[in-house]
Amino acid sequence: MLARFAIAALAVFASFGVAAAQDGGKVKVVASFSIIADVVRHVGGERVAVTSLVAPNADAHVFSPAPADARIVGEADLIVVNGLGFEGWLDRLVKASGSKAPVVIATRGIKAIKTEEDHGHGHKHGHGHQHGHKHGHKKSSKHDHDHGPSDPHAWQSVRNVMVYATNVRDALIAADPDGKDAYEANARAYLGDLEALDREVRDAIAKIPEDARRVVTNHDAFAYFAAEYGLQFMAVHGLASEAQASAKDVARIIAQVRKHKIRAVFLENISDERQVRRIAKETGARIGGTLYSDALTGRDGPAPTYIDMIRHNLRTLQSALMS
Ligand code: ZN
Fold this sequence. Notes:
The protein has 2 domains: 2-111 and 151-195, Nitrogenase molybdenum iron protein domain (Rossmann fold, 3-Layer(aba) Sandwich); 123-140 and 208-321, Nitrogenase molybdenum iron protein domain (Rossmann fold). The chain has helices at residues 2-21, 34-44, 67-74, 90-97, 158-175, 180-206, 223-229, 247-259, 274-283, 306-322; strands at residues 27-31, 48-52, 78-81, 103-105, 214-217, 232-235, 264-268, 286-291. The model is unreliable at 1-22 and 117-147 (pLDDT under 50). Helices cover 43% and strands 11% of the residues. The strands form 2 sheets. It has a 4-stranded parallel β-sheet, with helices on one face. A 4-stranded parallel β-sheet has the order 6-5-7-8, sandwiched between helices. The protein has 10 helices and 8 strands. Helix 5 runs antiparallel to helix 6. Helix 7 links the parallel strand 5 and strand 6 (232-235). The relative contact order is 0.14. The chain is of the alpha/beta class. Bound molecules: zinc ion. Zinc ion (ZN) binds next to loops.
């Protein structure tokens, strides 16, 4: 009896210990990049202080952590990452920081889209098929990261981000049990907003004529959007944004744009746009605007939150494909 009481008392002290570790009473969460940080902000609300390692408008594919990042990770109560090989730089950073904080994989439980080796030219047009991604598997000489066998860009499906939010909720409750009610209420509200957003995307894509639902982007970041919502994306680059597209890749895309009378090619906020501009120029396809793929914008930009990002992309696609 006494022993059981002692254990219960210990558990109470242990949870005080967690609370005391949180500076200013807030749970310190480090997110790998801006989209994850936004999900954590929505679910965590007032109880959390969130830091994103990769800044808005920056490319997580080529991120290289600075000593300051190791310090930030070292002070974290919780680390939230995308997983699926997106953050090739993470393990070393966590090790260097000495952090003992739990690392939460936001994509846990989603159905990952598998990539196939050297498939860049076996080009098909099924929904959700990956286009021209062979560079994602070519070891880059500049950056030693590897995407592994899964496409990491799962956040381009709103339904997947509902899973991210659920995983973040559960991780926050585990790290800060006193906030359970708040996290559950925040998550419920956010999941409702995401559900509505998902319907909005479906309704909008359904209004685009079927033969116009093909677009070209810079890097292969939209396979999940394609699989979920039935638009076809062809990419100049592979899964990773930094690989150099060869003249052959660009010629292949130009041929596809002509063959399928693709109306619009799109820029991204994280990528070099020269090749997309060249394709537009050579085919007469218009530049449809900027799609936000792997990063949010700052507060003053058109995509300061994930929901803003999806709405912006949707409006951009609609206006390019429906006029
Ligand atoms: Zn990417």
